[in-house]
Specification:
The chain is an alpha+beta fold and 240 residues long. It is built from eight helices and eight strands, in the order ααααββαββαββαβαβ. A four-stranded antiparallel sheet has the order 3-1-2-8. Strands 5-6-4-7 form a four-stranded antiparallel sheet, with helices on both faces. GO terms for molecular function: DNA binding.
Length: 240
């Protein structure tokens, strides 16, 4: 289920981590999460998840503080959460999560990104059932057996624990996200290579070289859209 997670994460981080685009998207996501409840991650679990993920992407504190201050103050922008599901070549499945203050613009932009790059939008539910919402937490400095032992001692359930590129990746149910982190922190671990609640595909598909190039162009086009927060897919790329 989780194979190649680190490679995918590192590829995305190398492309995005230092751009204003990804920081701006985190700013919106933090603002929206904070406006949903208290502007305090200890009492707003959705906000805590976003802040944990922002840390792994090295989002500057100034960006985070600006978004939180906006939520505390007079910020009154309204964003709508929308999920689009679609297809690429060879049955490749794609989920696109967005936050938008202009639904018509977002729908048009997402549809164009698919259609101009050999893909097509599906109806709601046509793809998501083939993905599992999963908490993914990555650490370094311990092996699988040590991680399993400390999670068992803390009475925390994990779906899977795997070593990927010298890091141990823990896969768990979304409601175990914070419990896993708390158990790891109790053992002295403070830094996470990955800390996300994501959508992992149940199966993968492989593409020909030409189809994969076109597919990557489509994914890039989607990720470049201002309103797109996350893009998930089930293509198993040798480059990744």
């Amino acid at each position: 289920m989780g194979r190649k997670w680190n490679n995918i994460k590192e590829k995305k981080a190398s492309k995005d981590a230092n751009t204003s685009r990804v920081y701006a998207k985190f700013g919106v996501e933090i603002y929206v999460a904070a406006k949903k409840g208290e502007v305090d991650p200890e009492s707003n679990r959705a906000l805590k998840v976003v802040l944990e993920r922002a840390k792994t992407y090295n989002v500057p504190k100034a960006i985070i503080d600006r978004a939180l201050d906006k939520a505390r103050g007079s910020g009154d922008e309204t964003y709508t959460e929308l999920r689009y599901e679609g297809f690429g070549p060879n049955g490749a499945m794609v989920i696109v999560d967005t936050l938008t203050n202009n639904v018509n613009r977002t729908a048009s932009d997402v549809r164009a990104a698919f259609s101009k790059n050999g893909g097509n939008l599906g109806v709601s539910g046509s793809v998501a059932y083939m993905f599992d919402e999963t908490a993914v937490i990555g650490i370094e400095g311990k092996d699988e057996e040590q991680v399993l032992e400390l999670l068992m001692e803390a009475d925390v359930d994990a779906r899977d624990i795997m070593t990927e590129d010298e890091a141990v990746i823990i896969y768990a149910a979304p409601d175990q996200f914070h419990a896993v982190q708390e158990a790891l922190r109790a053992s002295g671990i403070e830094d996470f290579t990955v800390a996300e609640i994501t959508m992992l595909p149940q199966t993968f598909v492989s593409l020909s070289e030409d189809a994969e190039k076109q597919f990557e162009k489509m994914i890039d086009a989607l990720e470049d859209l201002e309103d797109v927060q996350q893009v998930y897919h089930n293509v198993d790329s040798e480059e990744e």
